[in-house]
Each structure stands twice: as structure tokens, then as C-alpha cells.
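User: Here's a structure from my thesis project, written as C-alpha cells. My advisor, Dr. K., wants to see whether a designed sequence matches the one we expressed. Can you design one independently, without my sequence as a hint?
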């Protein structure tokens, strides 16, 4: 492909004949691959022109399916994606094929209940995979508008109104598909970066924590693709991130260093470890440190710092885990405060109050939903108070928060 483009314009007959001689999307794949890896700006621009000219456009196809149960079924619309769309998916598949079905968690040996783990992904292979995926993603981001933006289709002259609507619909569907691919590429790179960090941290040591939640059989059965797209796989990735963090806490690492690890993990894999995850980890760390602090003033200050991190967004996904940690450490007042804040923040427009004032109008679905959300947080308050009452009864005295 590069030799052809160095000798001929993308619009020349020679290039057209070369593209048409190949199977439908293979010419686009060769042009895309060349555009991603070339160091020549001119060659990249010419390869991109080939994609634009010969990449085609998505279309809507009607498919009528007839079955004994529904002999006169209505036609079903399918999107037939363009050759340039298929080229991106094919190139991604080519890159990740060696990884997709590999088992990252490899059982090494077991001795007296302790398990040694081996990485199924060689550390030396991680950087090359990331580099290849980065090239494709950078190219896609730089040429997104030229190749896939719907405005291109809307401006095509001479297209009947109905056909124009179908064309735009197909182009938007293709755009959504390419966005999903871009997200999958980004998640793949972030997972590889996390895996590289995990190997350096000590795979066996971190998985000791993970195995408190998942069995050896579950871990060894997972593939790389499972960690990306399977529900259990995603939970394992989440558990690995938390395990890395918890290991530092348990080793007595100072608070600032633990928080730096949390920030680094968020920087390393922000889609796998988002802001809510990072805030949750930081708050849990500071709650633990507050309890360990022998100085009452220092403990109170650290707890207040932790609460200030979550007060602006008390409905955070990790609230349940934070509340459990607060009650476990004896900070009952803080737990009740956060539950009350979450109830208010879940219904900023006071729809629940209006629902009650209007005597629970049956068709007020918004109000009913708001009430249910508030009840969820109020039940957390009840649980925290119940835990405190149980503790007080067992000791025969009323306990002080944090004691």
C-alpha cells in the first residue's frame, strides 16, 4: 500500500484498481494500518484520503424474517457498517488476538494454604501491546470528524428526504459502534497498565487479598477479555485495585503515601478506578488512620478530613462500604450524618416531601421514586443505630462515638 501511495495519488486509477482488486474491507484495513504506523505525515494524509474515498458509508437494510408463529412478520432493520468501520474492528482484533483468550491468573504452587501466582501475560509483552493500541486510538481521535461524524452524511446533495433520514440514522449507529470500540481500546490499555503495576507490586501478595472474596477456581478460569467485559471479571479488577490499596494500609504506610497510591491508580486506569472509587479508598484509609491515632484531637481532625471528602457527594457508590467501616470503628455519629446527607442529596427538589403533602398521589411516579430513595438511606441510619444499641447492650454501657 505504501509503495502504491508513494507513486500515485489516492484519486488515481492505479490506486482505485488496487483497492477494488482486494476483498471489500481489506483495502481499508491496509490503509488504516499504514496511517497508524507511518512516521510520514504525507503518507498518513494520503492513507486517510483512501479511507474517506473508498471506505463507503453505512446503510440501513430491511430484513424480513418469517416464522411459523409469525408468518407475516414486519421487516427488521439492520445496519450494514462501512468498510472503514470494519477495518477499525479488524485491526483492533488483530492487535488483541494474542491476549483475548489468555488466562492472566496462572496457578503456580500451593504450600500450607498459601498460593503462588504467575502472570499469564508476560511483563515484557505489555508495553508493545499498549503502544499498538495507542497508535490506533490516537489516529481515530485525530480523524474522527473526517471519517465518522454524522454531519458528513447530512450534507450529501441530491438525497431524497426519506433516504437522507436513513443515511443519518445509519451513520449515527456506526458512530456509536466506533465510540464503543474506542472505549474498549482505552479500557484494554488501562487494564494492561494496571497489570504491569500489579506484577511490579507482587502478584501473589496482592492476590492474597483478592482471594478473601474470590476462589482460586474463579480466578484461574478468567480470561483477559473476561476482565474487560464480563461482570465477574470486572468485579475481580475492582477487587485487585482495592487489594493494592489495602495492602499499603495494612503495612502501616503513612496516610499521605497511601493517598498518593490511590491517586496514582486513578491516573493509571481512570475508567477502571473512577473518581468515586478513589474518594471511597481515600475515605476508608483516613477512617482507619483516625481510629489508630492515639491522640484524640488528631483522630478527630483526620475523621473530619475524611468526612469533608464525601460530604459534597454523600450518595457516592461506595457509601455502604464507608458506613460499614465507620460503624466498625465506632464512629456512629459520622455514619448517621452521612446517611442523612445522602437522603437529602438524593432528592434536592424535595419531591418526597411534596409526595407526602399531596397524600401520596398514585400517579406521581417521580415523588414515589424520591421517597423510595430516601427510605433506602434512612434504613442505613436505622441499621447504624441498631448496631450501636447492640454494642451498648453487650457492654452494659452507652458508648461514645469513636471509642
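Assistant: Designed independently from the structure alone:
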Amino acid at each position: 500500500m505504501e509503495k502504491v501511495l508513494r507513486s500515485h495519488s489516492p484519486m488515481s486509477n492505479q490506486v482505485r484498481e488496487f483497492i477494488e482488486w482486494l476483498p471489500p474491507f481489506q483495502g481499508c484495513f491496509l490503509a488504516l494500518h499504514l496511517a497508524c504506523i507511518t512516521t510520514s505525515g504525507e503518507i498518513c494524509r494520503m492513507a486517510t484520503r483512501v479511507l474517506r474515498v473508498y471506505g463507503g458509508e453505512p446503510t440501513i437494510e430491511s430484513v424480513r424474517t418469517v416464522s411459523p408463529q409469525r408468518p407475516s412478520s414486519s421487516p427488521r432493520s439492520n445496519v450494514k457498517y462501512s468498510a472503514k468501520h470494519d477495518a477499525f474492528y479488524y485491526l483492533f482484533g488483530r492487535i488483541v488476538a494474542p491476549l483475548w483468550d489468555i488466562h492472566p491468573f496462572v496457578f503456580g504452587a500451593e504450600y500450607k494454604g498459601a498460593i503462588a501466582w504467575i502472570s499469564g501475560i508476560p511483563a515484557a509483552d505489555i508495553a508493545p501491546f499498549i503502544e499498538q493500541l495507542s497508535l490506533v486510538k490516537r489516529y481515530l481521535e485525530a480523524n474522527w470528524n473526517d471519517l465518522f461524524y454524522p454531519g458528513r452524511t447530512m450534507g450529501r446533495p441530491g438525497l431524497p428526504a426519506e433516504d437522507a433520514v436513513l443515511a443519518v440514522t445509519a451513520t449515527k449507529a456506526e458512530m456509536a459502534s466506533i465510540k464503543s470500540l474506542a472505549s474498549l481500546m482505552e479500557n484494554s490499555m488501562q487494564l494492561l497498565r494496571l497489570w504491569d503495576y500489579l506484577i511490579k507490586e507482587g502478584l501473589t501478595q496482592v492476590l492474597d487479598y483478592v482471594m478473601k472474596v474470590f476462589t482460586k477456581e474463579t480466578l484461574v478460569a478468567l480470561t483477559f477479555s473476561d476482565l474487560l467485559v464480563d461482570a465477574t471479571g470486572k468485579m475481580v479488577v475492582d477487587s485487585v485495585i482495592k487489594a493494592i490499596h489495602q495492602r499499603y494500609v495494612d503495612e502501616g504506610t503513612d496516610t499521605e503515601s497511601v493517598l498518593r497510591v490511590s491517586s496514582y491508580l486513578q491516573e493509571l486506569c481512570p475508567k477502571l478506578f473512577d473518581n468515586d472509587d478513589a474518594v471511597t479508598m481515600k475515605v476508608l484509609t483516613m477512617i482507619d488512620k483516625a481510629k489508630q491515632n492515639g491522640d484524640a484531637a488528631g483522630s478527630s481532625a483526620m475523621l473530619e478530613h475524611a468526612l469533608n471528602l464525601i460530604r459534597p457527594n454523600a450518595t457516592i457508590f461506595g457509601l455502604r462500604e464507608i458506613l460499614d467501616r465507620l460503624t466498625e470503628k465506632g464512629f456512629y455519629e459520622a455514619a448517621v450524618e452521612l446517611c442523612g446527607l445522602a437522603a437529602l442529596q438524593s432528592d434536592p427538589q424535595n419531591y418526597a416531601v411534596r409526595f407526602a403533602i399531596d397524600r401520596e398521589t398514585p400517579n406521581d411516579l417521580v415523588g414515589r421514586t424520591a421517597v423510595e430513595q430516601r427510605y433506602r438511606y434512612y434504613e442505613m441510619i436505622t441499621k447504624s443505630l441498631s448496631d450501636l444499641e447492640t454494642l451498648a447492650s453487650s457492654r452494659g454501657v452507652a458508648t461514645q462515638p469513636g471509642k
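When you compare it with your expressed construct, this may help: The chain has a mean pLDDT of 82.
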